[in-house]
Structures are given as C-alpha cells and as structure tokens.
Amino acid sequence: MYLVTGATGNVGSELVRALHAGGEAVRAIVHSNPADHVFPTGVDVRSGDLTDPSTLRDAWEGIRGVFLLPGYDQAPTFLRDARAAGVERLVLLSGGSAGSGDMSNAISAYMIASETAVRASGLSWTILRPSAFMTNALRWRDKLNAGNVLRLPFAGVRTAAIDPFDLAAVARAALLSDRHAERTYMPTGPESLLPADQVRILGEVLGRPLSVEAQPNEEARREMLATTPPQYVDAFFDFYVAGSLDESNVTPAVEQITGRRPRTFRDWAEAHRTEFVR
To answer: What DSSP assignment string belongs to 132-156?
Structure first.
C-alpha cells in the first residue's frame, strides 16, 4: 500500500488516481474530513496533519511507499515513524530552488530543510524538483471573468511548466521501483513558454481573444501581499524579478522515467477547459 500526503493537491490527487488505476492499494491523507472528498472507489482516505505526526499514528500499517510534501517542521518525526513502519521507498516533492542552497529565501529554505531531512532519514528516497505547474493558470479564472486582457505579474519570465499528471507519473514510477533510489530529478514540460504564450493557447482552446498586459512589479507585490505572507512574496520576487530561479530549461526526465513525452500546455488546457468556462 502507498501513502499519499496532500492527496487533494495538484500532484497528490493525480498520484492517487495513477496508483489506483495501476491496481495499487492507496491510502490518501487529507487535512479535513475524509467524507468531504471524492476519491476512486477503494482508496483508503484518512484525516491527518503533517504538522502533528501523531495524527498519522494509525495510518502506517501495510505502507510500502510514501509521497511526501515539503515544508513541515515535524518532517524528522514523520520520517522516523515511516522507517519504524518498514517503509521501503519515499518520494519527496521539492523544487528547483532547493539546489541553490540559499537559506535566505523562505521557499528555498523549507525545501532545502525537507531534502536534508529525507537524505538523513535512512529511507530509500527519490527527490523531485519540478518546474512550475501548468495548474497555476487556474489562478487566472477571476481575471478571465473580468475580460479578455489578463494583467499578470512576471510577464517576461519563461517556464517549462509541467502538467501535474506527468509529475504524478514520475512519482508513481519512483515509488514502484528501486531504480530511482537516491536520485534527484528535475521534471519539466516539453516547451518553454511565456505567460503570453500560455494565455494565447488558452484563448484558442476557449475560443476567446485573450491577451496579456504586464503588471508592474509594485502593483503585483501589493496584490500578492493581500493573500500571501511577506516572506513568500519576497521569495517569488527573488525568483522571478531578481532571477535567482530559472525554470525555462526543458529536461527529458518525464520521458526517460515514464517512457512517454510529457503533455503540452495545450493538452493541459484542453483537459481542464471546463474549469475555465463561465
């Protein structure tokens, strides 16, 4: 059986489906009431909190592999519990900035700390440092409801964004085989696009003449601070304005690990078209 933390998230939900579709037993960990979520029939849904590993005490029976989210202070305790339970493999979701070693950046710091804990855990581990997610485009829905011109931050930044469907396929492969032990992968999508490229493609899928207007940095910062802690806003500006993170490079990791090419942004937009329709 495989334990998936963050089972309702972008990657976790896709991983639950991928494992289940392949005939694997899955235990999905959610933060809220399990009854509030819909998973494939047969998935064992449990409530748990990664900030309090004691809430997962009853979730370890029969677990062979774990998919873990980064950024939890209690990760060492979680990892000790996993090892004590006989877990054979662990896949950590991290990010490209973890390779910088920069502990002054709040996002990089928690990913670095998580990677350090996993490497010291005594478990067989695989670390995934993906590029930006295609699902980030879902944040544009309110702007799309307001009109066809999207005022977006970091408009000059290219990313080789990945579909979480493909990232989940990589995670599944790492959970099921020892071939990926003690490896760090950087999965990306198949193309490097500007926000304007993504918006144009989305417009073609939706049948709307969409375009992008670059949002000034000062305005973007004010807007982000309304919903995001300042240290994380600073981290994003360090990544995408100061340029400390480059997510524009396309890697062959998805195809090498899964045997198929990753989905394009158009593929993703077609699959999620109804989520944008007013």
So the answer is: -BGGGGGGGHHHHHH-SEEEESSTT
